[in-house]
Write a structure and sequence with these properties.
The complex is a heterotrimer of chains A (285), B (314) and C (343). Chain A is built from 8 helices and 15 strands. In chain A, 24% of the residues lie in helices and 29% in strands. Chain A has a 7-stranded mixed beta sheet with strand order 10-9-8-7-11-12-15, sandwiched between helices. Chain A is globular. Chain A has 285 residues and is an alpha/beta fold. Chain B is 32% helix and 15% strand. In chain B, the strands form 2 sheets. In chain B, strands 2-1-3-4-8 form a 5-stranded mixed beta sheet. A 3-stranded antiparallel beta sheet of chain B has the order 5-6-7. The termini of chain B are far apart. Chain B has 2 domains: 2-172, no CATH class; 190-313. Chain C is of the alpha/beta class. In chain C, helix 9 (223-230) crosses helix 11. The chains are: A alpha/beta (285), B alpha/beta (314), C alpha/beta (343).
C-alpha cells in the first residue's frame, strides 16, 4: 500500500469532522433510483491537492439534512473532480436526489483503506459486480485500465436485475478496450442482446481460471454469497478474492463505534477486505 | 406472610407449566443484592422455586407480554398495578385474552432504592430486607434498622389505591389496608413549575430507561426516534428533554397505570410520576376514565363521543 | 515529589487559589449521587465526599452534546473548545481515571486524532480521590491493578479525617499542590492514608479477576440470549459507563444556520446499526447485548490492549432489570473452568 499517498491524505485533514465544500458539477441519471454526482471542490487549493485511492470512501453532507457514506466511484488517475453514486433509500439520499447542478455539498474524506493494487501488478483481474455494487469497483477498474500495462488480463462481469438497472452504460465501450466485458441481466427486454441470467451463474459459465488472478466482487449480499461460492468452486483461494463491506457509518474515522465487525472498524480497517480477512471476522453483516 | 404467598405463587406457576397451559411463566427471581429482584422466565415446572415474592419485586413484567405471546400462551405473576397494565394491553389489542394466564398478587408496597438512600440506608451494608407490618426491617452489617414503608417504598406505591389485582385468573393474598386517596401535589405557579422541571431535565441523559420499562410504550418506532419527521432532537438539552417527557406523558394519557417503574428506573432520579399523575388526574376528571380497569372498555382516546367534554370549559 | 497534607479548614483557600489560575470542576455539592461536574469557585459548592457519582468523568471530555461546526451561506465555522486555562478535575475515582485512559486510546490513538477530545484532554489535570469504602456494585479490583491506575493521574488525594493527604504524581500535580497551606504529613497521617489505600485494594475479587476474559467471551454463547430475555433495551448501562463513548452525528437547522452536533448514542438502541435501505446487522436484542459485552471485554483488548471496563459498577446499579455484569462474567468464567476440566 502506498504510505506516501496516505500521509498526504492525512495531512489534508486537520479536523476530520469538518467537510470541504464542493459544487455539484454534473448529475447523471443512471437508473430510476440511482444518480451519479460529479463534484468539484470550491477551494482551488483543495481541488488541486485532493487525492485518494481506489476503494476509499467519503462522507457527503447535505447541510441541514445530514451525512451519508459513499464510495468514491471516480478514479484518482483522472483529476480535478470526484464522483459518487447514490441510490435513493433514505433521508440524505432523497435530499441528494433533489439537488441540482451548482448546489453545494460537503465532502469529508477520503477515509478507509483501499484496494492493494500494487500487489496485483502483473496479475489478471476479474471484476464481478451487481447493480449499484459496481460503484466502488468502477474506481479500481478505471484505475487499472488507466494503468493498463501494469496488469495482465482485465475482465469484468457486470449484471443487474433488468437492462434499465445497469449503471455506467456510457463507459461500457471503455471497459471493452484491451479488456473483456460480460454483461447480464436477470430479465431482459426486447432490445437486450446480451446474456440473461444471474451474475454468479454467468461467472460459472464463463469459468475464468484462478491462476495468477485476483477477483474483486461487490453487489447485493445474495449475489456476493453465490459469487463467492462459485469462485471457490472454480478454484479461487480466499486470499485471491476481495470485496468492500458496508455498515452504517457516522464519523468515518473509527471514533463513533458504530461500524465495527468484531474488533475491526469498516471505516478504518476496511471497507476493502480480502475473503481471508473476512473469514476471521464474526459473521455480523 | 411473604413466604406463604411466595409458596402459593410457585404452586400456581407449577400447575400452569405441568398442565401445559402456558409455555412459560414470567415472574421475579432473586436479584444480585438483597434489595433487588430480577425478571425470570420459567419454562420447566421443576424451576418454579426460582420465583420469589418480596418487597423488591418491582418490575412491571407486562412489558414482556407483547413479544412473548407471539410464541404461545404466557403465564405472568402480576402485582395489582401490573394487572392494570395487562388490562390496558388487552384494551389496545396488543395481547389476546386466551394467550395469557395471570397470577395476580395482592401488594402492600414495593421498595425504591433511592428512597432507602434518602432514609439514610447504606446499600453496601444491607444483608436482608423484610416486611414487618407497616415497616421495612433492614438488616445491615451493624444491626437492624426499621424504616416505615411510607419512607422506603416507591412514591407510586405510597399513594396507590389498588392493592389487590384488578384482573387475574387466580388471585393470591388478601387486600391490605386501603390507602386514603391523596390529592395531586400542587407544584406552584407556572413559573415555579417551569423552573422545577427545567432543573430536573438538566439531568435527563436520554437513556430511555423510563420508556423501555413501560408496558404501554410498545410503539415500533417511538416519536422520539423518528428521523424523517423530527419531533424532538437527539441532543439532551433541557428544552429537548422537556419535549420528550411531556410528549411521552401525553401519549400515556388514559394509559398510564401508575406503577412508577419509569421513575424507579430513571438512573438520574427524575420524578416522572409527578407528570403522569397530573395527566391521569385530568383524564379522570374530564372523561371519568381510570386506566387499566376494564378489559372490555375501549381506550379513552381511541374513540370520540358526541358529548366529549371541551377542555377549554374546564 | 513530596507528599503533603492540608487541613480541611484550609481546603477553601486551596480551591480558591486553584480557581484563580485554573478552571476547577468537581461534583456539585448537595446533589448526592447525581452530582454533575460543575465549575467550582468555592469549597462549599464542592461535593467532597469521596466516592463514585452517577456522572462519570467522561462528561467533561465528551459532553453529552457538542457542536462540531456551524454552516451558514456556504461557509463553515468550526466550534472547537477554546479554553486557555488548564482544567482541573477534582474528586474523580480511580475507576473513572482509568476510564479516561481507555477513552484516550479510542480518541487520540489510531489513524486519526479527535480534535475536540484532544483540545480538552491536553488541558486536563486529574485529582483523583481514594475511595474509603466500596459501593455495593464496585468491582474495580477484579478488572485491573489500582496501583497502575493511580500512576495515571496527576494528584492522588485521600480523606484522612480532619485533613486531606495529598500525593502529587506528575509534574502538573506538583504545581497544583503548591502553596503555604500545605505541610509535611506526620507518621500517623501517613499510616492512616496507607490503611485507607490497603482497604481499597483489599476489595474482594470476583471469580473472573485475573482471568483472560477476552479469550473466554464467545460469539455463540447461549448467555447472550439469556440476558436478552430480560434486557429492555434502554441505554442506561452505556450512558452511565465511564468508558462507553459511542456517539451520533446529526444536523439541525435553526433559521439559516445549520448546526452539526454530536451526542451520545448506544449500541443498545435498535437503530444504532440500521442502514438507510433498511438492513440492520443487529436486528435482535441478543446481538446487541453480545456486541456491548464483547466490545468491552474482547474487542477493546484486541484494538488497544486495554480492558474497556473499569469495574465502577454503574451499569450494575443502573440496569432496571438487574442484569449484573459481575454475574455474567462469573458465569462465563466458571463455565470455562468446567469445560476445561472436562478436557
Amino acid at each position: 500500500m502506498s504510505t506516501d499517498t496516505y500521509e498526504m491524505a492525512s495531512r489534508q485533514l486537520n479536523n476530520p469532522y469538518l467537510p470541504k465544500l464542493a459544487r455539484i458539477e454534473k448529475i447523471i441519471e443512471e437508473t430510476w433510483d440511482t444518480k451519479t454526482f460529479r463534484a468539484v471542490f470550491t477551494d482551488d487549493e483543495v481541488r488541486e491537492s485532493f487525492s485518494y485511492e481506489p476503494g476509499q470512501f467519503q462522507e457527503v453532507s447535505v447541510f441541514g439534512v445530514g451525512e451519508a457514506t459513499f464510495c468514491l466511484t471516480s478514479t484518482p488517475t483522472r483529476r480535478g473532480f470526484i464522483e459518487f453514486s447514490v441510490k435513493q433509500v433514505g433521508t440524505v439520499t432523497k435530499a441528494l436526489h433533489g439537488m441540482s447542478e451548482g448546489d453545494i455539498v460537503g465532502i469529508r474524506g477520503p477515509f478507509g483503506n483501499w484496494f492493494p493494487y500494487n500487489e496485483w501488478k502483473g496479475k489478471n483481474l476479474l471484476f464481478i459486480g451487481g447493480g449499484i455494487g459496481m460503484a466502488p469497483m468502477r474506481s479500481i477498474l478505471n484505475f487499472c485500465l488507466d494503468n493498463r500495462s501494469d496488469y495482465a488480463d482485465i475482465t469484468t462481469i457486470y449484471g443487474a436485475r433488468t437492462p434499465g438497472d445497469l449503471c455506467y452504460t456510457y463507459e461500457f465501450d471503455d471497459w471493452r478496450k484491451d479488456a473483456s466485458l460480460y454483461l447480464t441481466v436477470d430479465a431482459g427486454d426486447e432490445n437486450w442482446k446480451d446474456h440473461v441470467g444471474h451474475v454468479p451463474g454467468y461467472l460459472l459459465e464463463l469459468a475464468p481460471k484462478p491462476e495468477n488472478t485476483i477477483a474483486i466482487t461487490c453487489g447485493p449480499p445474495i449475489m456476493i454469497k453465490f459469487a463467492l461460492q462459485n469462485l471457490a468452486q472454480l478454484g479461487f483461494k480466499d486470499e485471491q478474492i476481495y470485496t468492500t463491506l458496508e455498515m452504517k457509518m457516522k464519523c468515518g474515522i473509527g471514533k463513533c463505534g458504530r461500524c465495527n465487525i468484531g474488533s475491526k472498524f469498516v471505516c478504518v480497517d476496511g471497507p476493502v477486505f480480502s475473503l481471508a480477512e473476512i473469514r476471521e471476522l464474526p459473521p455480523e453483516f | 406472610m411473604s413466604e406463604e404467598l411466595e409458596q402459593k405463587i410457585r404452586e400456581e406457576a407449577k400447575k400452569l407449566l405441568e398442565s401445559g397451559e402456558v409455555r412459560l411463566v414470567v415472574g421475579w427471581g432473586k436479584g444480585s443484592a438483597p434489595f433487588k429482584t430480577t425478571p425470570v422466565f420459567i419454562d420447566k415446572p421443576e424451576d418454579v422455586d426460582k420465583l420469589v415474592w418480596n418487597p423488591a419485586c418491582t418490575n412491571n413484567l407486562a412489558v414482556y407480554l407483547p413479544q412473548l405471546v407471539k410464541e404461545g400462551t404466557i403465564g405472568i405473576v402480576a402485582k395489582p398495578c401490573d394487572t392494570r397494565a395487562v388490562v390496558t394491553l388487552l384494551q389496545e389489542k396488543q395481547i389476546e385474552r386466551e394467550n395469557i394466564k395471570v397470577i395476580g398478587v395482592a401488594c402492600s408496597g414495593i421498595i425504591d432504592e433511592s428512597a432507602l438512600k434518602r432514609a439514610g440506608i447504606d446499600l453496601a451494608e444491607v444483608r436482608e430486607i423484610k416486611i414487618d407490618g407497616e415497616n421495612l426491617l433492614v438488616t445491615t452489617n451493624s444491626g437492624t434498622q426499621t424504616v416505615p414503608m411510607t419512607q422506603a417504598e416507591k412514591e407510586a406505591c405510597r399513594i396507590c389505591e389498588h392493592r389487590t389485582p384488578v384482573f387475574a385468573d387466580v388471585t393470591i393474598g388478601e387486600a391490605p389496608t386501603a390507602v386514603e386517596p391523596e390529592a395531586v401535589e400542587n407544584m406552584g405557579t407556572p413559573e415555579e413549575r417551569r423552573a422545577f422541571w427545567a432543573k430536573q431535565f438538566e439531568r435527563c441523559i436520554r437513556c430511555y430507561a423510563c420508556r423501555q420499562v413501560c408496558p404501554q410504550c410498545y410503539c415500533a418506532v417511538c416519536f422520539i426516534d423518528r428521523n424523517d419527521v423530527r419531533w424532538t432532537s437527539k441532543k439532551p438539552t433541557p428544552a429537548e428533554n422537556w419535549m420528550v417527557h411531556m410528549g411521552r406523558a401525553l401519549h400515556l394519557a388514559g394509559r398510564c397505570i401508575e406503577c412508577g417503574e419509569c421513575e424507579r428506573a430513571c438512573p438520574m432520579d427524575i420524578p416522572l410520576m409527578k407528570l403522569n399523575r397530573e395527566v391521569a388526574e385530568h383524564v379522570e376528571k374530564l372523561f371519568e376514565f381510570e386506566a387499566g380497569m376494564d378489559p372490555e372498555a375501549a381506550p379513552v382516546f381511541g374513540r370520540f363521543e358526541p358529548d366529549d367534554p371541551d377542555p377549554n370549559e374546564h | 515529589m513530596a507528599d503533603k497534607v492540608i487541613a480541611k479548614t484550609d481546603l477553601a483557600k486551596w480551591i480558591a487559589e486553584l480557581a484563580s489560575k485554573f478552571t476547577v470542576i468537581a461534583p456539585e455539592a448537595g446533589e448526592a449521587d447525581h452530582a454533575q461536574w460543575k465549575e467550582v469557585t468555592s469549597a462549599e459548592k464542592f461535593n467532597y465526599v469521596p466516592g463514585r457519582y452517577a456522572m462519570a468523568a467522561k462528561e467533561f471530555l465528551l459532553p453529552a452534546y457538542e457542536v462540531l461546526f456551524r454552516y451558514k451561506k456556504d461557509s463553515l465555522e468550526e466550534s472547537l473548545p477554546e479554553d486557555e486555562k488548564t482544567t482541573i478535575m477534582m474528586g474523580l475515582t480511580l475507576c473513572d481515571a482509568r476510564a479516561i485512559q481507555v477513552l484516550d486510546s479510542v480518541y487520540l490513538d489510531g489513524k486519526f486524532k479527535d480534535p475536540y477530545y484532544a483540545a480538552r484532554r491536553e488541558k486536563l489535570a486529574l485529582i483523583a480521590s481514594v475511595c474509603d469504602k466500596p459501593r455495593w456494585s464496585c468491582f474495580c479490583t477484579s478488572v485491573g491493578d489500582l496501583e497502575q491506575w493511580a500512576a495515571g493521574v496527576d494528584v492522588l488525594i485521600t480523606d484522612i479525617g480532619d485533613s486531606i493527604y495529598i500525593h502529587p504524581v506528575s509534574e502538573i500535580g506538583e504545581k497544583i499542590a503548591e502553596g503555604e497551606f500545605f505541610r509535611t504529613p506526620t507518621e500517623e497521617e501517613t499510616k492512616k492514608k496507607n490503611d485507607i489505600w490497603q482497604n481499597l485494594i483489599a476489595l474482594p475479587k470476583k471469580p473472573f479477576a485475573g482471568q483472560d476474559i477476552y479469550k473466554m467471551v464467545d460469539w455463540d454463547d447461549a448467555i447472550w440470549s439469556e440476558i436478552a430475555k430480560k434486557c429492555v433495551g434502554c441505554g442506561a448501562c452505556s450512558y452511565l459507563c465511564p468508558s462507553c463513548s459511542c456517539f451520533d452525528i446529526q444536523d439541525e437547522v435553526s433559521g439559516d444556520i445549520v448546526e452539526r452536533f454530536r451526542c451520545r448514542d448506544t449500541c443498545q438502541f435498535t437503530d444504532f446499526t440500521l442502514m438507510g435501505a433498511g438492513h440492520n446487522p443487529r436486528p435482535e436484542k441478543t446481538m446487541r447485548v453480545r456486541q456491548r459485552i464483547m466490545h468491552k471485554f474482547k474487542y477493546q483488548i484486541e484494538q488497544f490492549g486495554m480492558l474497556g471496563c473499569t469495574g465502577c459498577g454503574r451499569c450494575v446499579e443502573a440496569c432496571p432489570v438487574n442484569i449484573d455484569l459481575r454475574e455474567v462474567l462469573t458465569e462465563i468464567v466458571e463455565r470455562e473452568k468446567v469445560e476445561a476440566g472436562k478436557n
